[in-house]
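Its record is set out here:
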Amino acid sequence: MSTDLILPFSIAFGLLNFCLITRWYVIPWARSRGRAEALVPLLLLHSFRYIGMAFLIHGVTSEPLDTRFAFPAAYGELLAAFLALIALAALRFGWSIAMPLVWVFNIAGTLDLLNALAQGVQFVPNGHFGAAYFIPAIIVPALLVSHGIIFILLVRNKQEYRLT
């Protein structure tokens, strides 16, 4: 296999694996919970997105990454983590604006990931991620799938907004 195909293959494999985990475990669990309760662990997962700041640390990546990718990706991830925490607090404290905040987080977070993927393909040469390779290969697929689950939970008809 060409080394140019390893990262795209890894991302595709990660998406498949996280879709299976979601179908077999996450969705059945979420169906047994209220909307707010099901959203909490998903938002907690996204609160770790500050890890994207690693793209700015020379030595974590094998080469300094192109700033056209690194800066938007790193700071977009930090913003997504911050928005996830705000939405999480709103859910936990039962604020009336909790669901709109989850929508804001989910739209912004999804767009950030899609933009980072597009910029990464365009501006990051093969092998330059170095030790940060696990971010696009494992973390990004997990986050993309969880964004899908969040969208499903946001549009489902159940009107439960508070944690039990």
Q: What stands out?
A: The chain is about 70% helix and 0% strand. Helices lie at 6-31, 35-46, 67-92, 98-123, 134-155.
